[in-house]
Write a structure and sequence with these properties.
about 35% helix, binds N,N,N-trimethyl-histidine, transferase, Dimethylhistidine N-methyltransferase, MeTrfase_EgtD-like, MeTrfase_dom
Length: about 325
């Protein structure tokens, strides 16, 4: 009986440094109340985000997949051979399968995600589907320094889809891209999804869908705080508010307090004035040139860019 040799390996790249309770309280205690968008993704939040990706108004996911499918051969040849493909925030590893179909000679895929159980489950499934691929699942927060397992490929390419780069604040974005450029030296590449500036009505509709799923996604954050931080938010007293801030070039998502109220969180209290908001997410949008200039300033050389026919979304390939 042939023994099956495992082609999936599991590693811990780093341990999340911050604690949710102190991070959330500090954010709610700042002059302009904020909560990090990473806390959207509890089980319900992840399910709601999956539903968002299928909404008619929410164009980014389907547009990025269209571009990936249409240009995957060009992307694969740009990435090249003898390269380990590293994915930041790999999740279900659904999107990367489009690329893998165009990269039959790829030897190593390194999915990195902070949700260890889901990462390991997705990595195992992919390793069964692609028995000739070495899958190194790395549980880590990729925005912090992390350890990689020993790889045999001579270079690395990072796959960073979804326009998650748009969630970073400008200084965070620069730090992240500079860290990624160092990570990719020498001679590595970055294939990154970037949502583009466009008609404000299209942007506003994508974050204020007619079914109210994005509103549920935003307010679900308060459910998570109630459950995990022993808070007593009443969701009836907070309202989803999302709008495109043209001057800053970003969609802002807020939860607006509909009255003067005091919330208990664990052993602490936070007061809200009527109309005061918690800023829960920024999604920055870029022109091709804006993003290429940012990338150059962080040590990258733009090589290729692929867009859809409406110029709504872009995939950039950059090298160090
Ligand atoms: C997954 C962060 C790219 O910013 O468009 C979707 C999250 N927020 N609808 C985005 C999101 C509201 C999405 N990212």
């Amino acid at each position: 009986m042939k023994t099956i040799k495992s082609n999936v390996h599991y590693h811990v790249g780093n341990e999340p440094e911050t604690d949710m309770y102190s991070e959330v309280l500090n954010g709610l205690r700042s002059e302009h109340k904020t909560i990090s968008p990473k806390y959207f993704y509890d089980k319900k939040g992840s399910e709601l985000f999956e539903a968002i990706t299928m909404l008619a108004e929410y164009y980014p996911t389907r547009t990025e997949l269209f571009i990936l499918n249409k240009y995957r051969d060009e992307m694969a040849s740009a990435i090249g051979t003898d390269t380990a493909l590293v994915e930041f925030g790999s999740g279900s590893s659904e999107k990367v399968r489009t690329l893998l179909e165009a990269m039959p000679d790829l030897k190593e895929y390194v999915p990195i995600d902070i949700s260890k159980d889901f990462l390991y489950q997705s990595a195992r499934a992919l390793s069964i589907e692609y028995p000739h691929l070495h899958v190194h699942a790395v549980s880590a927060d990729y925005t912090e320094k992390f350890e990689l397992p020993k790889l045999t490929s001579s270079r690395k390419a990072v796959f960073f889809p979804g326009s998650t780069i748009g969630n970073f604040e400008p200084h965070e974005r620069v730090n992240f891209l500079k860290m990624t450029a160092d990570f990719l030296k020498p001679n590595g590449g970055l294939l990154i999804g970037v949502d583009m500036k466009k008609d404000h009505a299209v942007l506003n509709a994508a974050y204020n869908d007619s079914k109210g799923i994005t509103s549920q996604f935003n307010t679900n954050l308060l459910n998570r705080l109630n459950r995990e931080l022993l808070a007593d938010f009443n969701l009836e007293h907070f309202h989803h508010h999302a709008f495109y801030h043209a001057e800053k070039g970003r969609i802002e998502m807020h939860l607006v307090s509909l009255k003067n109220q005091t919330i208990t969180i664990g052993s602490e209290h936070v007061t809200f004035a009527e109309g005061e908001t918690i800023q829960t997410e920024n999604s920055y949008k870029f022109t091709i040139e804006e993003f290429q200039d940012i990338a150059r300033d962080c040590g990258f050389t733009p090589k290729k860019v692929w867009v859809d026919e409406k110029n709504w979304f872009s995939m950039h390939y950059l090298m160090v």
